[in-house]
């Protein structure tokens, strides 16, 4: 009974890592990188407390003030307005009147106030500052030629 605490292991191995091929297994041994901290691809500190536009997978677009972010690019935005563009979303006139939304001339843009928003980083497609950005006419649209 006194020998019970002296044995370690469990699989009947030799007790060294050579039985596993020195691949590590569990435990996550130190690799060459060691305890290196991952750096963010984007430096969002310069956009803190400034207005930004964020586009998501699926076509949604929001504009708001950046209040915080983390290493996974999850964002916290305040005073958010969501804009949905395109004819593929389902919206009725009663929803527009009830949610203070607006439609453009073609009826394919909806805008609504969301307030505070936490955006998941895996869904982000584009982050851009509002300052210094303006919408321009599409230079690639060809004018109708009636002379042909």
UniProtKB/TrEMBL annotation:
Domain of life: Eukaryota
Subcellular localization: Nucleus
InterPro entries: Lsm7, Lsm7/SmG-like, LSM_dom_sf, Sm, Sm_dom_euk/arc
Bias-annotated ranges (Basic and acidic residues): 13-25
Listed SMART domains: Sm
Molecular function as annotated in GO: RNA binding
Domain Sm, chain residue ranges per copy: 39-133
UniProt-listed GO biological process terms: mRNA splicing, via spliceosome; nuclear-transcribed mRNA catabolic process
Keywords noted in UniProt: mRNA processing, mRNA splicing, Nucleus, Ribonucleoprotein, RNA-binding, Spliceosome
Predominant location: nucleus
Pfam family of the protein (one): LSM
Cellular component, GO, one term: Lsm1-7-Pat1 complex
Family annotation (CDD domains): LSm7
Record region (Disordered): 1-40
Stored PANTHER family: SMALL NUCLEAR RIBONUCLEOPROTEIN, U6 SNRNA-ASSOCIATED SM-LIKE PROTEIN LSM7
Family: Belongs to the snRNP Sm proteins family.
Designated name of the protein: Sm domain-containing protein
């Amino acid at each position: 009974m006194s020998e019970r605490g002296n044995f370690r292991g469990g699989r009947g191995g030799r007790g060294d890592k050579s039985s596993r091929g020195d691949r590590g297994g569990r435990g996550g041994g130190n690799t060459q990188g060691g305890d290196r901290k991952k750096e963010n691809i984007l430096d969002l500190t310069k956009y803190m407390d400034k207005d930004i536009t964020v586009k998501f997978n699926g076509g949604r677009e929001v504009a708001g003030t950046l209040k915080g972010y983390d290493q996974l690019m999850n964002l916290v935005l305040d005073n958010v307005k969501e804009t949905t563009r395109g004819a593929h979303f389902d919206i009725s006139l009663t929803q527009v009147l009830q949610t203070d939304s607006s439609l453009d001339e073609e009826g394919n843009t909806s805008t609504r106030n969301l307030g505070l928003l936490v955006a998941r980083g895996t869904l982000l497609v584009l982050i851009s500052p509002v300052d210094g950005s303006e919408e321009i006419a599409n230079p690639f649209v060809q004018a109708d030629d009636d002379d042909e």
